[in-house]
Every structure is written in structure tokens, then in C-alpha cells.
User: Fold this.
Amino acid sequence: MSGDNEETQAAEETSVDEKEVQEKMISPEKAEEAKLKARYPNLGNKPGGSDLLRKRLQKGQKYFDSGDYNMAKAKIKNKQLPTAAPEKTEITGDHIPTPQDLPQRKPSLVASKLAG
Amino acid sequence: MAGPGGGSSDVQWCFSQVKGAIDDDVAEADIISTVEFNHTGELLATGDKGGRVVIFQQEPESKNQPQCRGEYNVYSTFQSHEPEFDYLKSLEIEEKINKIRWLPQKNAAQFLLSTNDKTIKLWKISERDKRPEGYNLKEEDGRYRDPNTVTTLRVPIFRPMDLMVEASPRRVFANAHTYHINSIAVNSDYETYLSADDLRINLWHLEITDRSFNIVDIKPANMEELTEVITAAEFHPNQCNTFVYSSSKGTIRMCDMRASALCDKHAKMFEEPEDPNNRSFFSEIISSISDVKFSHSGRYMMTRDYLSVKIWDLNMETRPVETYQVHEYLRSKLCSLYENDCIFDKFECCWNGNDSVVMTGSYNNFFRMFDRGYRQDVTLEASRENSKPRSVLKPRKVSTGGKRKKDEISVDSLDFNKKILHTAWHPLDNIIAVATTNNLYIFQEKLN
Assistant:
């Protein structure tokens, strides 16, 4: 009896292996998808859906808040700012863009090298 | 072995010219973003990420060198768009030229439309080769004369001068697009043109800048329900009522402007059925159409998605009549191509003058041509190594199997930073313009 089970088990495993090999042969795409999901398990199940599209539509969005900017400038001068209560463990981003950080928005004054 | 072109199987392509800097350190502004021949092929325009347009003009064929057609030399260059910042929406507006479209020539001047993400401009390029001399009230250098010193009168005359080519903006079509403009297309009526962004298409009259008609609007009432965006749009080459637009889901919709003012309901929808068993995370992304081009005849249209080029018969919506694999070997690399964002690269495609051959770009500075009649295809490379004048381009091959033959390149050795996204074919002759990241190559058919 146990002998039979072992045989069936071995047969099942072989057929599963064969199926995997077959799948890989049929669809390299699916193999690539498996690779991606292995690396990024939290990747949404909506294939190429709204998240990607919305990211595309938001291209170019930058934020500059003069209040934040002035606060950041003040922080540099005067290091003593009232700190938040120590219980708060949540860390929020503290990088406030300064004019040095923002890329220069000058137009190209140099002629194109194609015309050189 | 000779490559395809012009309907015969024995066209050989030769290097003709290369424009741009040699050094590897590419400034972002120098990245070429569009290439377009005008209707006669005499002029070739390029746009770049820095908002500049460079126009080349073909030299007339010289009797001394009948074995090659004229070379392209710089005709005019100007700053078309400048970077802007929309303070209201906190949005940076890139000066990158997304598209250039020539208008057919009506008088001595040339006109083209160039667009960035938000604004379309009509540029007039005109020649000046004479200037008036002999004014009564002005000196030759422009200073005004004291009228009391003028004792005689003369008639100013025009004298020849060195050719000056001037570009001036004649119309600015602004503030009509909330999203980023991906296409502009001139109508065959030569009076109107369309501009398409991710969600809307507008119809303009070339003379009128303060209003445009919205003809397609696919924005959902709730943006959470957004499933597809418009990726390209084009007018039919001779039916002025017909245009098509492609989507990120791999569909093409054909619309007839006679049916209604708002063309949200398509007249035809072209979509190839998909095998649900083969569906993967990548399916939709690689089916996104990056370019759509009508054939010159108006009978067919060509679409480019990430891995293939498809030819559609406008009379058949159910599937394409021809499918050509550009770089099928990338299908087993989709995971890393997704991680490095290359899977989102937008390749363009083009027809030759008589619609017998189509061309598109790939990676490693390779580009591909497919001869529809002879069912042949060839892979060529745009590189400085093959840039001896009139040297014939050798076909390239990517090895997919285990064994790599001599002269073949393996898939893992391909340089994915060297992408050819923009190519153009002369409307009449076998002359092609191929843009690498920052260089423009011109290849010509070998003539004996």
C-alpha cells in the first residue's frame, strides 16, 4: 500500500514539474511576471491599471510652499525649535525644497549641437 | 545580404551623414525628441528636449556626384518653446518638443507646427536674400539723418545679400490642454489640425488661436475609474472627416467628424482579440500603442506597441492583416525592463513613400525594416563605427539561443540606454533619418 502511495506521489511530482516546464515554454511572460511578483510581493493586482495611469497624468507636479520654505530657512539659522512630544514616533519627511534644490528653469541659451 | 526597401529586395543602405556631438556625455537638452521630413523631403526638422528646433535642407543633386543624393545641411535653428511653471497647479511645463508637423507649402515661406506638453506654435520660416539700400532719411547703418541735410531724393533699391533664414512664431495655440499633448496632426483640408492629450482631442483652425473644439473626451466622471488613456492620434491622409486615436490598452478608434460634434462614439474600433490564457501582469503595458500612422494610400494604418508593429486594413476591425516582431527576444526580459522603466519607452514607426516597407527603432541603436511585399526584414545599426562616407550598412543579428555566432550580439549585451525612438522616411526617395539619443543619422540607398 505504502509502495503504491510513493509511486503515485512520484508520478504527481513529475507531472507538476512537466507542467512548470510546459508553462515556461508556453509563456515567458508569465515566468517574468512570477519573477516580478517574487521581488515585489506588494505589487497591486491591477495589471497596468489606474495607478500607473494616474502617475502618468501627474507628471511634472512639483510643490513649493513659501511658508515651508521660510520655516526651513529659519531652521538653518536657529537650531532650537520646539520639538514634538517624544511619544510621537511617526517620522514625517523634513526635506523642504529650497531654491538650490529646484532645478534651474532657464531656457536653453546654447544652440543645438545638431546645428554645430 | 541586402536589406529591404522600396519594394525590391536588393536595396542596400549606406551611411550618408551624422549630426550632433561625438562625446558620450549627453546634456539632457540635446536629447532628440522628434524628427520629421516635410512634404517634398527637401527639409528635415528635429526637435529636442531643450525646446529647440533644427531644420536641415537638402542640397540640390550635383552633376559631379550622381551616385548620391544631396546632403542635408543646417537651414535654420530656433528656440521654439521655453520652460514654464504653472503656479496655479504647481506644475512644471517642459520645453521638450513632442511633435513637429509640416504644413504643405503654399507660398515662398515654409510653415510648421511644433508642440510641447501644453502649447502648440505655428512657425513661419522665410528666406531673405535681398535688402533695401539707399534710404533718404536713414544712413546705411540705420541711424537717422538730419532732415535738413537732405538735398536730393532717390528711390531705394533692393540689392542682393547673403541668404538669411528667419523663423518667427505666427500663432500660439495655448491653454486648451489640461493633460500632456502627445500628438498633433494636420488635416488634409490644410485648414484645421488636431491636438491630442492623454484624455482629450481638440480641433483647431490654423488661423484661430482663441478657441478650439473638443472632439474627443474620455475623461471619466470619477478619476478612480480611469482605465485607459489616449496615446496617439492622426488624421486620414485624404478623408478630411476621418481621424484615429490609439489607447494604452492597445485599441484604435476611428471617428467620423460628420457623425456628431463630439466624437466620443467611435465609427470603428480596431482591436486584436487576446488569448486570456496568455494574459499576464505585463500584457496591458506591452499592448499600449505608442504610435499610429496611416499609409500614404490611406488604405492601411500601422500601429507600434512595445514588441511589435501591426498593419491594419481600415476595412477590417477584428485583427491586423500583418504583424511584425521587432524584438521578440525581450519578452523573457520584461521583468527587468519593467524595473528600469524601459517597458514604457515610446517607439515610433514610419512608412516608406510607396507603403511597401515600414521601419521602427529598437535598443542598442538598432532599427528594423520590414518589407511587406517580399516578407523580408533587416536589422541595421546607427553607430559612429559604421560612419565612413557611403559605407554600406551590414545587417545585425541578435542571438537568442544558447550558441552565439560570430558578429551576433547576445540579448544580455544589448545597451538599453541606446534607444532609437524616432525615425523618418523621405516621402519620395530611399533616404531615412534615424535619431539616436543625441545624434541624427541620415542613410541613403546605395545608387550605382
Chain A has a mean pLDDT of 63. The interface with chain B takes residues 26-33, 35-37, 39, 43, 47-50, 52-54, 56-57, 59-64, 105-108, 110-116 of chain A (CB under 8 Å).
